[in-house]
Amino acid sequence: MDQRVVPHVVFLPFPAQGHVKPMLMLAELLSQAGFEATFINSNHIQDRLEHSTDIATMYCRFPKFQFRSIPDGLPSDHPRSGSSISQLLIASRDETRTEFRNLLVNLGQKNGRWEPPTCIIADGIMSFAIDIAEELTIPVITFRTFSASCTWTYFHLTKLIEEGEVPFQGMSNLFIRPNYLFGFEYSHL
What pTM does this model have? Predict the structure, then answer.
């Protein structure tokens, strides 16, 4: 009898709205394609999600999808935005690392055997996931959730520096459009 193995992907976004949403969309797409998806949120994000989303309907739409949550290392009343984002970065790295590893071990224990997830897709900021994946011999993919304009800047930053556009030389230079870079011509802005 041919038993098809369903790929199981574990998702680990950085616990901030601009990171969770794109990764959640990817998880939904893969779940819709038949993958088993485990989406790991911070307890704080999961609490907000449960108050703003019909989780039961989501589970009906994606029956092989599940949420799990782990602590992010900050107290529940912490704002987790603005100038305090650096505290979230540090706390997530320190606290989430151990909790994420423990959760992966629990997910991999099935019927007394080690059956790890097929792979992990982790936010690029959550780089500790690479070390844990290697330790547990689980393939890992880092997923950058930033916008197209950030990607464009990343790929062209060297040219901007070479041309003297960066660092900026005062407020008036902020509105100068370099026409020597593809995708940033005057007509596109």
Answer: 0.80
